[in-house]
Amino acid sequence: MRPFSVVFPIIIILVAPACTKNRSDHFDGRHYCNYERTNERSAIRVIEWYLTRRPSKWPRLIPSTFGATPPVSVGPGQLSAVFVNHASVLVQFDSLNILLDPVWSERVSPVSFAGPKRVRAPGIAFSQLPPIHGVLVSHDHYDHLDMPTLKRLKNRFNPLFVVPRGCAKRFKGTGIIRVVELDWWQSTSKIGAKIYVVPARHSSGRSLADRDRTLWGGFVILSRGGPIYFAGDTGYGKHFKMIRRRFGPVRFAVLPIGAYKPRWFMRTVHMDPADAVRAHRDLEALRSMAVHFGTFPLADEPIDEPPRLLAALLKKGKIPTGRFIIPLEGMPYGIPALSPKK
Fold it and tell me: What residue numbers bound the domain in which 32 lies?
């Protein structure tokens, strides 16, 4: 593996120490932080991982085919979700089409010639996307905020972009002006559905010079059939139960399951499959979908390990596979509504 390809994943998962001042419970006036302390990410620890890591070999390319062209919209009360790949999902509900962390680029990197390269094509061809009304970006790491893709979406659809606090500055000079920036627990209804930014346990930054200067988070979208939750990039933590308490049982949860090895380095910022099952239960999710696996080599586990481990955990925990979806790229999954409260 080329040196830059090895080093770059280190840059995009770095986490600063917990807040030491009391400007808010997650901001010290300069840096954002998590509700729960994360592993110390000193330069020494980063170098330790770099020198001792044993990344599994991923294939250069896995042949794939595009799924069926998504409909322009779905009917009232319906919810359809299509896994594009990595953390990118098309969610269609209540006459709205929303993209989560869309990435159509070949690499997730500040440069086009180096850095983690995709091994699977997106499950939906960009040209086959339906009209996009909203784009939710969970944080500014390159594998989630992919500016070339966001510019393409702006030029074709001019959707509303919803981002955590501080991330709007990433759009300066891009021509993208329909940007709403929210703190944790704040919301917007500008496209006809109420969308909240909610806590996650992670970090931010586009380089080592701007670590944690912007906020990270997940999203809750209030649909007619119940809350839709996108975790973004996150380690396991108390925020899942906080979200459940505030919004009630979740209709549909999009949960990351990959980029988790070595655990001593990744545990507090990236969930593994066991963590994702715990989150599914904490949220009392009617349906969950696994994401953040099988596309970009960002950590040390084998490419097929996350879905394989998740399938085994679901079987062991007697959770029907239909309740926690291990998705195929490009395939639409219909999500039922929550039963009305009696």
Answer: 3-334
Give the start-end residues of each E strand in 46-141: 79-85, 88-93, 96-100, 134-136
Q: Are 139 and 105 in contact (CB under 8 A)?
A: no
* CATH number, domain with residue 252: 3.60.15.10
Six-digit token pair at 219?
A: 């999203």
Express each pLDDT in 44-80 by its tens digit.
777 888 888 888 999 999 998 788 899 999 998 999 9
% of the chain at pLDDT higher than 90: 80
In a domain, 165, yes or no: yes
Q: Report yes or no: 276 and 292 within 8 Å, Cβ to Cβ.
A: no
Q: Hey, what are 81's tokens?
A: 């979700």
Q: Is residue 340 part of a domain?
A: no
Contact 153, 46 (CB under 8 A): no
Q: Which of 225, 248, 211, 254 is nearest to 90 (CA)?
A: 254
Q: How many domains does the chain have?
A: 1
Residues of the chain with pLDDT under 50: 1-6, 8-18, 20-22, 342
In a domain, 341, yes or no: no
For residue 284, give the DSSP letter.
T
| Confidence (pLDDT) at 112 | 87
Q: What Å distances lie between residue 242 and 37, 199, 207, 239, 333, CA to CA?
A: 16, 9, 31, 5, 27
pTM, full prediction: 0.93
